[in-house]
Amino acid sequence: MTQEQVTRRTFVQSSALAAAGAAVGVGGAGRVAAGAEAPADVKKTRSYNENMEYRRLGRTNLWLSGVCIGGHWKKIPYGYGSPEFKKNRREVLAACMDHGINYIDACWDHEVIAYGEAIKGRREGMFFGYSFGAHESRFPKWGGSLATMKEAFEMGLKAGGLDYVDLWRITMHEQTSRRNTEAEIEIAMEVLAWAKKSGKARFTGVSSHDRPWIAEAVVKYPQLEVIVTPYTAASMKAATGSMFESFEKNDVGMIGIKPFASGSVFKSRGAPDSATKDEDDERARMVLRYVLSCPQLTAAIPGLITIDQVKNAAKAVLQRREFDVEETAKYEEIKKDMWANLPRDYQWLRDWEYV
Predict the structure, then answer these.
(1) For residue range 4-42, what is the model confidence (pLDDT) as tens digits?
(2) What are the residue boundaries of the structural domains of the chain, listed by start?
(3) b/e burial code for range 57-82 (CB count within 10 A of at least 16 → b)
(4) Rounded to an integer, what distance in angstroms lies between the CA atom of residue 224 and that of residue 204?
(5) If residue 165 lies in a helix (H) or strand (E), which one and from where to where?
(6) Cα–Cα distance, 253 to 57 (Å, whole number)
(7) Is the pLDDT of residue 219 over 60?
(8) pLDDT tens figures, 41-61
(9) Dihedral (CA of 219, 62, 254, 293) sign
(10) How many alpha carbons fall within 13 Å on the CB side of residue 115?
(11) How far apart are CA 65 and CA 72, in angstroms?
């Protein structure tokens, strides 16, 4: 594609990406770029690696790698709990730490159990984000009282072999204001305060997809130090009414899920070692470069299922954020494929273009 063929829309998008990328690349407030001289407190973060970018997780003052690892493991060719599965998870987590990736987000019961076991012996190399989701606020049996929420939290720690977690981020219903009652929300906030006071959760937050509720909740509840919420290959800050404004005013950290939109950005739909692996690796790097251009985002947490995918994610951090003309055209194609390939149960991600 020649420069003359670039549409004005594509040029404007490329210019915006370049500006965002330039701001991040030199290391802004709360960010230390890969290869930059890091302050002493950043060097003390878990699994620090000079070739990884680190970002401050809001007022927790934790320094997370720009790319972290999500708890899901779609496309792993091994049965859950099998020796091959366990070996894969141990090796992938070890590779993450070796490359400076220092946060794992385990958001459901089987993930807490799997990663609690996989991280044994290297617990202090990784910040552990925790949600025992099947025993939390989505289910009235557990989320309906403070006593049952405390019981479930303790149950999850025991199941994962964990003495504490760095972040308890309760998995609320995606549409929190519509599907969680006010009583359930208040109980969730109360149990988060209890967990932090007890020392069993260093920091607290929630996962929610309800942007208007999130924007108001981070003002109302000091327990919400971190929000886990979508930020995709096509997301961008809304011109007005963005929830990012509440994050900035209240110094809330944001962890972004679904950067690859359930594999929709890939030719192979996310299958490892496919015939399109080289192209898919390039697409993964471009998506990570794009989402890391968002200054409000602390970390993106793609599911990483092979050591090669870990290495590829770490490589993306070292690349410039801005897209040139040719890359901008490629990225338009990635977004087009993402929208075309979204599974039926992920169509809701269309509502996350403007955040």
Answers:
(1) 333 333 333 433 443 333 333 334 569 999 999 999 999
(2) 3-352
(3) bbebebbbbbbbbbbbbebbeeeeee
(4) 6
(5) strand 165-171
(6) 4
(7) yes
(8) 999 999 999 999 999 999 999
(9) positive
(10) 33
(11) 18
Sole residue written with tokens 């099998």: 82
Q: Report how far residue 99's alpha carbon sits from residue 83's, in angstroms, rounded to the nearest whole number.
A: 24
| Torsions phi, psi for 147 (to 5 deg) | -65, -45
Q: At 184, list the tokens.
A: 């359930």
Asked whether residue 172 carries a pLDDT value surpassing 50, the answer given is yes
Collapsed DSSP state (helix, strand, coil) of residue 39 = coil
38/52 Cα distance (integer angstroms): 11
Structure tokens at 164: 């504490």
pTM score: 0.91
CA dihedral sign, ordered 320, 326, 328, 334: negative
As a whole number of angstroms, the distance between CA 109 and CA 337 comes to 32
Contact 292, 286 (CB under 8 A): no
Laid out side by side, the sheet with 201-207 consists of: 69-70, 103-106, 127-130, 165-171, 201-207, 226-230, 253-257, 299-300
Mark out the alpha helices in the chain (DSSP H runs): 8-25, 40-43, 83-98, 109-118, 140-143, 146-160, 176-179, 182-198, 211-220, 244-250, 277-291, 307-318, 325-341
Q: Fold for 3-352, please state it.
A: TIM Barrel (3.20.20)
Tens digits of per-residue pLDDT, 264-281?
Answer: 999 999 888 899 999 999
- Three-state DSSP state, 275: coil
In sequence order, which residues have a C-beta less than 8 Å from that of residue 237 and are 6 or more positions away? Answer: 244, 294, 296, 354, 355
Quick check: 210 pLDDT over 50?
Answer: yes
Q: Which residues of 124-158 are buried (b: 16+ CB within 10 A; e: fewer)?
A: ebbbbbbbbbebbbbeeebbeeeebbeebbeebbe
